[in-house]
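INFO  loader      accepted 1 record
INFO  loader      residues=412
INFO  predictor   begin
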Amino acid sequence: MHQFIGKWITDREFYRLTPRNVFHKQLQPVELPCTEHLDRHVLFRRRFSVTEHVKTARVYISADDYYKLYINGRFVAQGPAPSYHFQYHYNVIDVTDFLQEGNNTVAVHTLYQGLINRVWQSGDLRHGMILDLELNGAVILTSDESFKTAPHTGYRAESTVGYKTQFMESYDASAPEVGFEAPDFDDADWSYAKLHQCDDHILAPQQSAMLTFEEILPQKTEWQENRLTVDFGSNYVGYLCLSVKGRAGDIVTIRCGQELETDGRVRYQLRANCCYEEPFILREGESVLDQFDYKSFRYAELTLPEGCEITKLSMMVRHYPFHLQAKINPTYEGNESLRRIFALCTHTQEYGVQEVIQDCMEREKGFYLGDGCYTALTHLILTGDDSMVRKLIDDALASAFVTEGLVTCLDC
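INFO  predictor   done
INFO  writer      dumping tokens
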């Protein structure tokens, strides 16, 4: 167990807010307004110097609701996995290869979603970030009021999808905070962070693994005038990676879906009650899309203004670490139908399981106890890894503070 030296820091919007109780039994709903502090993207930066040879380096970090960590302009990791505030997860990350002797910069993109849903414990007015950076066994940097902070104005919430599961994102590549993770970014006009005066998190190390990422290239593309349809070959969970050259103010319309209509268009109105349509507002020259929240899709449909050019297109897929150990019984290896079923099921396990077992990756993203029992046990049988089973049991038992009979959906 790491004893943090760093403090929970936030910005002026959140530092005096008192946490509120969002928990209740399913049949005893509590009406809590969620009209303020919605979809807040809060950035943190800190420059520091390393004066000795980097042998080993670790970051201990957590954020509420979520963070993406960068060091010296490079993406490091994101987290934590959903958990209750009284056993809130922190991550331990090896960053030896990210540091250098001399000047360094750590940058953190945090999100406070502000909705009460099945994804995580949000809407409770708890926001912030805590960090310790350890070099060669000694802590050399801690989160405090020397960190600079600013809201990211490039993100504007569109409609919510599913059961108020996530905001569709309007991303403006011309926002002044774009590129905030770069060491030479000018943060002179940013404010200093504030210590959270009402923080009540009790931290615990995340025992489950962190996400792994892989880039998937399009399997098929088809142009129809100014509209490009992209097929990534299978359904995945992740983020569209897109770079476009164009004029300032041009808008690329992005539609994602899991299937095609009969006319070949992408069905972006999902059967799961999600409308996957988002605008991408360009800057002058080349713009890089940076969507924060993830979606579940196979197809993308891009409608471009005249004169725009796509310079990069792929999908960054995220999933829980998966190393297949199980095999089909040799007796049935020649059964092609069985082999296809096995391949489909293992693909679903490999790419479907996220930081928690979810009932679905779009409508609810919920860590359901019932669904989790089947999926977690299957994951264990296929991989030999029991970490997801352990998280399911731990988080289910922790929900007894809501009701002794436990709750159906965990960590929310």
